[in-house]
Amino acid sequence: MGRVLLKVIILGDSGVGKTSLMNQYVNKRFSNQYKATIGADFLTKEVMVDDRLVTMQLWDTAGQERFQSLGVAFYRGADCCVLVYDVNSSKSFETLDSWRDEFLIQASPHDPENFPFVVLGNKIDVEENKRQVTQKRAMTWCQSKGNIPYFETSAKEAINVEQAFQTVAKNALQQEAEEQLYVDYPDPIRIDSESSQNYGCNC
Amino acid sequence: MLYVQKKNEDLSRGAFDLTTQMLRMNPEFYTVWNYRRHIFIQGIFPNSSPAAINELLSEDLGLTAAFLKQHPKVYWIWNHRRWCLEQVPDGPLDEDKDGWRMANWNKELFLVEKMLDVDPRNFHAWNYRRYVLASIPVRRSQVSELSYTTRKIESNFSNFSAWHQRTKVLASLWQAGELNVAQSREDELDLVKNAMYTDPDDQSVWIYHRWLIGDGDDPLLLQREIASIQELLDEQPDSKWCMESIVYYKTLLLRRHLSTMDTSVQQSLVGECFDLLSKLQYVDSNRKQRYIELSDEIKNTFL
Amino acid sequence: MELDAVVLGTGLSESIVAAALSKAGYKIAHVDINPYYGGDEASLTLDELLQWAKERAESSVDSDSAYLSSQRERFTNISYTGSLPLQSRQYAVSLLPMLVPSAGPTIDSLIASGVSRYGGFKLLEKVALFDSPGVVKPVPGNKEDVFKNKQLSLLGKRRLMRFLMFAGGEFEDKPELQGSEQMPFTDFLKDKFSLKEEAVQAIAYALAFCALASDPTLPALERIRRYLRSSGRYGPSPFLVGHYGGAGEIAQGFCRTAAVAGATYVLGRQVSSIVTAPIAEKTTGKYTLNLEDLSEQLRCDLLISSPDHLPLDLQGDSSITTASTNCSFARCIAVIDRPVSFSTSESLEGSGGEDPASDMPIQDLSVDTALLVFSPSSIPIGSSTVAVNVLITGEGSMSAPRGRWILYITMPLLGDQSGGSHSPEELLRPYLDATLSLTRTSEHPESALPLVTLFYEQSPREGPENNSTEASLMLSTPPHSRYLPEVADSAARNAEVTFWRALEVLKSAGRLPGDKNSEEAVENFWPPLEYVNGEDDEW
Description:
Chain C: This is FAD/NAD(P)-binding domain-containing protein. Chain C: One of its GO terms (cellular component) is nucleus. Chain C: Belongs to the Rab GDI family. The structure holds 3 protein chains of 3 kinds. By secondary structure, chain A is α/β, with parallel strands linked by helices. Helix content of chain A is about 30%, strand content about 20%. Chain A has a 6-stranded mixed beta sheet with strand order 2-3-1-4-5-6, sandwiched between helices. Chain A starts with a strand and ends in a 21-residue tail after the last helix. In chain B, about 75% of the residues lie in helices and about 0% in strands. Chain B starts with a helix and ends with a helix. In chain C, about 30% of the residues lie in helices and about 20% in strands. Chain C has 3 domains: about 5-75 and about 245-325 and about 460-510, FAD/NAD(P)-binding domain (3-Layer(bba) Sandwich), CATH 3.50.50.60; about 95-125 and about 325-460, Guanine Nucleotide Dissociation Inhibitor, domain 2 (2-Layer Sandwich); about 140-230, Guanine Nucleotide Dissociation Inhibitor, domain 1, CATH 1.10.405.10. Chain C has an 8-stranded mixed beta sheet, sandwiched between helices. A 6-stranded parallel beta sheet of chain C has the order 11-2-1-15-22-16, with helices on one face. In chain C, strands 6-10-7 form a 3-stranded antiparallel beta sheet. Chains in contact: A-C, B-C. Chains A and C meet through helix 1, strand 2 and helix 2 of A and helix 4, strand 7, helix 6, helix 10 and strand 11 of C.
């Protein structure tokens, strides 16, 4: 049994808390400074899923979503897609639909009906009167799209973040296993400064 | 504590597990390997069915395979593997007495061939492989063995061990009458000449050529080969192996077929040898003395 | 938006520069009029490719953007046949077929920038020369190949080996080369190494990748040595093919790393105007750009642009980083549903059932990711002066679904082909047919028929007539070397030259990277890589 690598991408409008959620989950940290994801690339974390150790690779959008400039490369090979909105911004919830569509077009999974999404309604730590999207409304949408798991989170207060990503890991692993049935790719060559095995020039 | 147990002839499972722990820490502890085998033979095997014995031996083979990854050259590990393989009982069925053996030996062959893929020139691995081939109950055909050496030579050229293995396989095939000796030798000469021309500096190729020529009882063959090497020398005038081989074969001609030559031919040959030997003193000055000695020898024998 | 520089066009060269400037600490915006990354080097799905072809094949209309008019001038004689197969999105077709040498500036930049972590590569399996319908000749590139080759004579082998040893070493001072540096390489091989025609062809066209028989010796030797020294790093072949179309995916990787370092990305929007501020005004940036559908203006002191993204009126004012020695190309992209096999004449003789001498079944000679080279005069109705190459990529390179392969045929329009009197389809159809002859098997004795074919001609942008001294307005040189394995490295080299010049411009405009109080100069093309999950002060 080889090492399992799960690619997870996190989508949603700018400012909903995608990078904060990632950082809270992986590094257990939160910063109030909104630096628009400067420096966030991808984070890896090893998790146990049903007695199996897997490596999750969480990909940040690096701010390229701001002007709808996420390239197809970002979506390739994703095993799970996390859709994030801010519960205090109705607009960010309304765009979830187009984010989901965009994902399915760009990533082209073999079985789009059953591709694992997880929806996170973030920033529940903000005072209640600022809230614009009800839990019921969100859950209705999630159910209508094939029973997408839904979590209400706060990256700042670390509420529900662990649970949400545990579900992500589980569903991503299942997707990866199913995807393996379709593909039979030989191991790709990974280029990094350490990986050169020298076969030797024979001249 | 282990010594105490050994002294007391402790053949228990506990003692056995202790040997496992110790060997994990240091697989070079040969007395511990001995003790382990002792426990197997005296303590565990007498109370176990053949199937259980096979199972235990397979586990030990698995254990030692893991050790080998860290310590690929520790003799005691290989030694223990040999012992395990030789202990495999008849089974699984009366009609298939060699079933377990075949399975284990084939795995062993696979293991050693994997090692040779990684390091095709590992001389010890080649030796071990010969041992495995000789021990497998149903022998692999020598013909397929010949192909194996061909593949190894083709994939990694300067492979003394592969050429060496080839000499053994061919000798066996020739003796058994499975290959037409004359044709086979011609094929081999063709193969080795391709190698010579591709890389005249590869020593293993010249050694193989010499083996093919043997004792030189065919003068026409000798002359033909000398001419071939001369052509190569003309193209590659600094090739010391060419020069040395020509001297060797011309000397062989002189030794074996003196009676069939008239004096002028003899003298030409001798002169040519001298020429080459003096060139060699210059081209391969490290071995100057040897060439001088060879010159003297020829002088004394043929003049 | 106050910026240090704006880059227009997300082609390979521009993307590498954007990444380097961004990582060096400069504020960059990177814009492309297309809704996809990669520009002229993009990786496209089949329906995107068809769309791309249609747009450029249509006649101009007044309302066309300057970009599209420009593109229509450069991509001409477009013809497309076939119906769109299902699974169109499973394809990643590259507008620029590319090989990445295992050692060189592209690999170095990929590793140093961290872009190598984003994607994978496939090693090129084989290079072969076309011989006759259904048959190829192997290309002996190392000792083992030479030994096994059944077509070379013994002397031929010795001479070829002698040449390979020469080419792999320090040949600059060797007597064989003195005075012959500019001699046609094919003549050099015959005169100095007494090589026969067969060996000359293999070396010149499939090891040095010469385009013409007259290509000079020294550059050819330098290329061979580079490739000989790259082989062994990741496997026997010196060349890598990027997953998902190669160039376009790699460009996206550089854009991503630029974004991670803070660059702003804007796809799918046209530049509606660029205003150059008079010299006297020093308060805001020199250039003010307006993008359609974007309220924010972009202001910067340096503009780097791919040729087609710059409005015509500014082109004359721009400077170029390196002289363009590019020629036009005739190109073909075809999709097939049966594999190409590299069968040599020996493998065909010995075929039929198992080899009795070994327990091995008959060899499968079909290839997934490989290169086929046609030397001049290798096919009766082909070119007699120019070499043509065919890059084949299959499932293993992640550019096609299972059971499908993409063929990229490229002919540099040089020599007797530079007249322009034949359409790309006329020029390349014989090569396509010859390549398809290699799909014949005992079960399918006829050549495969392509599902889709696209022919077109690609011309380089003419550089500005007078290379202006306006350093702050740079025209990025596109990566279209006539030598297939040099394409990627030429882009990387150009990017680096552009980077250093950009630094000079920014410095003289008073712009410092990152923390404005820092006095440290930028010393390297790429800063040291940070570890993933590393401690980050901001968090």
